[in-house]
Amino acid sequence: MKHHPVFQTTRLRLAGLYAGTMGVILTICAIGFYEAMARSHISELNHRIESVAGTLHDGLEASLQEPGKLEPIVQKFVPSLCVIGSRCTDQSTALHYLSVFQEQGYYIRFLDLSGELLATGGQNPLELPIQIETEPWQTLAASDGNRYRQLSLLLKTARQQPWGYMQVGRSLSELDGHMVWVRWILAIGLPSAMLLVIMASWWLAGQAMQPVYRSYQQMQQFTADAAHELRTPLAAIQANLEATLTPDATDTDAWDTLRTVERQTGRLSRLVQDLLILSRMDLQGLTTRSTPCQLNDLVTDLVEEFSALALASRLSLTANILVHTPVIVIGSEEQLYRLVANLITNAIQYTSADGQISVSLQREEPYGIIQVADTGIGIPSLEQPRIFDRFYRVNSDRSRHTGGSGLGLAIAQAIVQRHQGTLQVESEVGQGSRFTVKLPMKRSRD
Ligand code: ADP
385 in a domain, yes or no? Predict the structure, then answer.
């Protein structure tokens, strides 16, 4: 595959597609993860700010009397409060409130209705602009670059008059620092993951191409074998014709040539027919009409049909129907006929005179079993797994002599597979062979 430009380009494209798709998915996931993380931190912070602001808001509102006036009660609620214009004694950066609570990093600001700062508490950022927005939640950026999350609440006096604003906030620098780390991790992690994805894609594309490449090789092998098989009889015909088409050729020579041409064209047409069957089956599978086929009749008919051929070779061919009920399978009668015929033809071809061939039928729920057994020359065990390959002959000279092309068992195997069955061989050299076909029988609800 490495040296085949078409496969290399396809592999590259496939790997590119994999890597591209995975890259998009990874990037979307990374952005999603980042966003989800940032949102979850902000929402947690909002919740905490809300809880501080809510506690103060509920306590303060009942005690406020005059709009824009900071009553001493406010300082009782927020001991760390620093009133604008007075000297602040509490230098602590923590926000103390309601005597018991103390929150690090928070700040509080009280503003009158015009937005004038009245007092601050906690870690108040001096660089942060004072804004009164209609939206309660704001994310503000201070002049030093730090960002703050702030909640502004309108306070009312005990008589329900607007008093001013209370702003509770917290610096986002800790969160921003954390998110910078996450960005760094993603910036390094994402390209590294992409590198791994590219390598994995290349490997996966190679794996995905393997079966395609194998079938391409098989196709090439098949074409080469078919061409070779076609060339042999054609070469024989041509050589005979050339030898006969000379001025000194006699009538006997001409007859001999005609007989050779007849024999070779017969072989050619059998070969072409076999090739057609195989390619049709490759193309359509079992799209040929499936009907219930009775194997009992099929076996007896075939044995009857081949008995003359067996007799001519001085062989005994018998049918053993070991069932008393019809064995019915769903499939193509024509193909099943060819399957058993191929096995019987082989048995006749590879059994020497006075041998015996038996074709039996039995059932082994849920299968119908046909066995073609002969007392022929047998097949060496090393060769047995290969005899079902296209154009494979155990001994090409021996097989060619019988007119075989090495496609008979390949066709039989393809037919069995199309019928969801199995084809097995047991054989011993010099003793004989037994081919067993197992076909699933028609179920009562089929
Ligand atoms: P061919 O057309 O050459 O017979 P097949 O595909 O039918 O091709 O068979 C493949 C090979 O398997 C044959 O070349 C033959 O050597 C071997 N073979 C098949 N059937 C038998 C058998 N019944 N006894 C011995 N050898 C067999």
Answer: yes
Section 333-337 average pLDDT: 92
For ligand 1, the distance from its centroid to the CA atom of residue 407, given in whole angstroms, is: 9
Strands 432-440 and 422-428: antiparallel
Any domain includes 228: no
pLDDT at 212 over 70: yes
Single out the residue of 77, 124, 83, 80 nearest to residue 105, CA to CA: 124
Question: How many structural domains is the chain composed of?
Answer: 2
CA neighbor of 241 nearest in space, from 261, 217, 223, 227: 261
**What pLDDT sits at residue 402?**
60
Range of the domain at 333: 291-440
Tell which of 124, 141, 171 closes a domain: 171
Which is the closest atom of ligand 1 to the Cα of 377? 25
Which atom of ligand 1 approaches the CA of 410 most closely? 6
CB 128 within 8 A of CB 120: no
- What is the pTM for the complete model shown? 0.62
Same domain, 155 and 295: no
Q: Is residue 333 part of a domain?
A: yes
| Protein residue with its CA nearest to atom 16 in ligand 1 | 394
168 and 52 Cβ atoms separated by less than 8 Å: yes
What does the alpha-carbon distance between residue 289 and residue 292 come to, in Å, rounded to a whole number?
Answer: 10
Domain's final residue, options 171, 201, 227 = 171
> How far does the centroid of ligand 1 lie from the alpha carbon of residue 396, in Å?
10
Q: 216-238, pLDDT tens digit by residue? A: 888 888 888 889 889 988 999 99
More confident of the two residues 185 and 140: 185
364 CA from centroid of ligand 1 (Å): 27
Ligand 1, residues at Cβ distance < 6 Å: 346-347, 350, 374, 376-379, 387, 392-395, 399, 404-410, 433
pLDDT at 132: 74
Q: What is the CATH number of the domain that holds 327?
A: 3.30.565.10
